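Researcher: Sequence recovery benchmark, item below. Answer with residues only.
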C-alpha cells in the first residue's frame, strides 16, 4: 500500500498548469509595451487606435451616466473616426452641468484605476473583458448613434469577448492591465485638452469640458484643469499601487 501510494503523491505535487503571470509582471510588461508602441514602433499609435476609441467611449459614457445619476437625460453618444466623441445630455444648468463635464474627464482614470486594482488574475481578467464586451454591446443598442461608433464598438466587443473565452490567462491579464494603464493615464496624456478652453470634435470647435466646469462653478478653467489633473494622477497612482501590492496569482485552469 505504501509503495503504490508514492506515485500518486508525486503526481499530486507535480505542476499540472503553468503559473499565471503575476500582477506585477503583467503591469510592467503592459507599461513597457505601451511605451514601445507609442514612442518607438512605426505606426505604433495607429496600432493602439482601437484603445483610443475605447478611451473616448469611456469618457463619453462618463458624461452620459453622470447625467442619468443626477436625474437628467442621456440622449445619445457619438464617436468619430478622429478619436473624438460627443455625449448628448440634458441636465439643469449650474453645478449639475459641471458634474456632468467632470464625469467625462474623470471616467477614464476612475475606470483605469479600478481595473488595475481588480484585474490581478486570469479569472478576474476574464470577468473584466466579458463585462467590457457586454457594456459595449449595450451602449450600442441604447446610445451609440454615429457610424464610426456603430462599427468600432461591436468590433471591440467581439475582440474582448474572444480574449475572455479563447485566450490564455496570461494574455487576458496582460490585456486587462494594459487597458487599465491606458485608461488611468488617458486624461493626463490628453493634457492639452484638459487645459484648453475649446476643442475640435469631428472638425467643429466646441467648448471644452473644463471650460464648462469653470462657467458653471466660477474660477478660471486652468485652475480647474490643475485640480482635475491632480485627481487623475492620484487615481492612477492608487490603481498602480493596488496592482503592485496584489499577491502572486495561483495556478488556475482557463
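Model:
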Amino acid at each position: 500500500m505504501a509503495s503504490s501510494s508514492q506515485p500518486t503523491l508525486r503526481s499530486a505535487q507535480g505542476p499540472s498548469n503553468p503559473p499565471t503571470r503575476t500582477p506585477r509582471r503583467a503591469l510592467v510588461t503592459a507599461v513597457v509595451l505601451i511605451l514601445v508602441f507609442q514612442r518607438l514602433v512605426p505606426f505604433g499609435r495607429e496600432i493602439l487606435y482601437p484603445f483610443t476609441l475605447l478611451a473616448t467611449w469611456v469618457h463619453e459614457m462618463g458624461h452620459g451616466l453622470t447625467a442619468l445619476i443626477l436625474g437628467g437625460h442621456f440622449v445619445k453618444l457619438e464617436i468619430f473616426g478622429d478619436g473624438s466623441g460627443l455625449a448628448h445630455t440634458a441636465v439643469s444648468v449650474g453645478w449639475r452641468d459641471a458634474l456632468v463635464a467632470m464625469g467625462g474627464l474623470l471616467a477614464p482614470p476612475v475606470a483605469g484605476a479600478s481595473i488595475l486594482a481588480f484585474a490581478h488574475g486570469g479569472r478576474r481578467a476574464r470577468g473584466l473583458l466579458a463585462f467590457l464586451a457586454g457594456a459595449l454591446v449595450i451602449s450600442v443598442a441604447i446610445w451609440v448613434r454615429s457610424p464610426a461608433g456603430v462599427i468600432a464598438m461591436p468590433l471591440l466587443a467581439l475582440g474582448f469577448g474572444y480574449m475572455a473565452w479563447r485566450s490564455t490567462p496570461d494574455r487576458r491579464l496582460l490585456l486587462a492591465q494594459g487597458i487599465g494603464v491606458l485608461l488611468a493615464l488617458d486624461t493626463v496624456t490628453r493634457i492639452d485638452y484638459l487645459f484648453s478652453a475649446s476643442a475640435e470634435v469631428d472638425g467643429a470647435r466646441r467648448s471644452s469640458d473644463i471650460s464648462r466646469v469653470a462657467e458653471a462653478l466660477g474660477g478660471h478653467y486652468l485652475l480647474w484643469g490643475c485640480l482635475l489633473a491632480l485627481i487623475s494622477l492620484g487615481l492612477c497612482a492608487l490603481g498602480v499601487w493596488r496592482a503592485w501590492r496584489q499577491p502572486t496569482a495561483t495556478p488556475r485552469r482557463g
